[in-house]
């Protein structure tokens, strides 16, 4: 890929406000988008996310009523992804999930796993209380979100982050459908994916020379 192609992809991605309800993302492309999240980086490799990929129209319509930032996007999109993030209890160094991650996913020998747990414990002590731990975990989930939007753009698939949500109401809907266990996960953000109906506007951004300082 050359540099113009990279810039084209970055410009292609925009906050798409309305999708063509008749155009659905193929399962092959959806898998690539999800890979964008699965392969995203996270602090100490904790992968605190889970992606609820909603294609059920009735559920999308219901959720759109409590997501003020996604009134047109959620009902028209092909897939609405709700980004869940593990709770502080789940990502503490002595949790079952961290044990699974170190042993079954990363295949660390016992002494390495124990060192990693100690390292995680010192990070945890620095981060502090549950509120800070949840924010720390949410930050990782946003990185996965960004990676998924860019993966989609590479496939000419549009997206729109939906941060304008009533979290409590969304969580209630998910709990009622047995899609969320609040002890383990909380809702962080949403993102709609699909195909645009309107052309995007040129990007309005600060000039390049104002957003960075090169230190030689
Ligand atoms: C964390 C976050 C939350 C956002 N929430 C919403 C939202 O609820 N509804 C919406 O239409 N756009 C939302 N956006 C899109 C931004 O408004 C948009 O990315 C920004 O204005 C820049 O425009 P562009 O993405 O088209 O380049 C959100 C973006 C981010 C990063």
Structure in words:
It holds the Pfam family Nitroreductase. Belongs to the nitroreductase family. It comes from Romboutsia faecis. The chain is built from 9 helices and 4 strands. With 216 residues, it is α+β, with helices and mostly antiparallel strands. The protein has a single domain (3-210), classed as NADH Oxidase, CATH 3.40.109. It has a 4-stranded antiparallel β-sheet with strand order 1-2-4-3, with helices on both faces. Helix 2 (27-38) crosses helix 8 and helix 6 packs across helix 7 (110-127). The longest helix has 25 residues, at 130-154. It is globular, with a radius of gyration of 19 Å. The two termini are 28 Å apart. The model has no long low-confidence stretch (mean pLDDT 97). The site of flavin mononucleotide has 11 residues, from strand 3.
- Structural class call reads alpha+beta
Distance between the termini: 28 Å
CATH class call: Alpha Beta
CATH fold name: NADH Oxidase
Throw out a few tags for this protein.
216 residues; alpha+beta; NADH Oxidase; 4-stranded antiparallel sheet; 13% strand; binds flavin mononucleotide; NADP; NfsB-like; Nitroreductase; oxidoreductase; NAD(P)H-dependent oxidoreductase
Q: What is the structure about, briefly put?
A:
The protein has 216 residues and is α+β, with helices and mostly antiparallel strands. 47% of the residues lie in helices and 13% in strands. Bound molecules: flavin mononucleotide (FMN).
